[in-house]
Specification:
By secondary structure, the protein is mainly α. Helices cover 63% and strands 0% of the residues. The protein is elongated. The relative contact order is 0.09.
Length: 63
């Protein structure tokens, strides 16, 4: 939002739509309690829980 507002105030009025779009998205996320970016970040591989060792895996390693 800050970049769009700054560019609009520097003489590029079309950039105000960037600030409006981001602001509308934040408003929707706050009112609907749905955040698309949070859903995307949760699906990344490093945000997945590590598999817990099962009895079968532990027995296979010991033999």
């Amino acid at each position: 939002m800050l970049a769009g507002t700054a560019l609009a105030s520097l003489g590029y009025p079309i950039w105000i739509f960037l600030a409006m779009f981001v602001g509308a998205g934040l408003t929707f996320a706050g009112l609907a309690n749905v955040c698309g970016l949070a859903h995307l970040l949760a699906k990344l591989p490093w945000n997945r829980p590590k598999p817990q060792p099962t009895r079968f895996n532990v027995e296979a390693r010991q033999s």
